[in-house]
Fold:
Amino acid sequence: MTTASPTTTPIPSEIEPYLSERELELIERADTLQVQDTVTEQAAVLVMGQLKESEDRLEAQRKAKLAPIDAQWAEIHEPHKKAIDFFHGLKTMLNTRWSAFKNEQKRLADAAQRKALEDQRKAQAEADAKAEVARQEAARKQKELEEKEAAGTVTAKDLKDAAKASAKADSLAEVAATPAPVQVIERPSNTVSVGGVSATGRNLKDWIYECGAEKGGDDYTRDNPRFQALPDSVFVVDETRIGKIIRGGGKVDGVRVVPKPSSSIKT
Structure:
């Protein structure tokens, strides 16, 4: 027979005022009692019964002292909580409308900015095209002038036309080489301050199930066919569910049933 060594369990100082002398003696008795035979077994059962009586006494005392506090707490908490939730709901509703407005303003600003960039690109392409046409025309006029000079048939008009075409080509080339500045469209600020109130809007990330399921269901397991697309990493071990299955006599793969000391004490 193995005899366990007696231990001394310290009594928390904050509970001593609630204990009677008899209960202090009971604690010492329970702490040192070793179950070694039928006599000490019966003694242990008797002590467990006395410990339960102390539990029941202290629980009844706790409830009696808390009852008026709980009633007062409920009287204050419930109406205030309902009012707080009501105002929170209104704020959430208005915030949703405001966020939709801000998002639309940002969408319009982004669209206007894209249009400004596209307009600038088109204007640049048009300027480049005009400069190229003018360059080709100036080159053609210059070639004709050189041919007439070689033939000795050049006129003052030919010289004037060639100079005019060259000047036009230079002018349009300079325009094409200096792109017009792109109009910068200012996006609306995320923060609005008015009358001492400052509100900052931001889009947080939320999520929904692609299968259409609502959040918070109690049958969302790996076996549920609606959730086959979800990775294993998002399924958390439900130890409460495991306990219910085991206590109900069922089996769970990967779980081994082990004894857990327990007793039912009646006094």
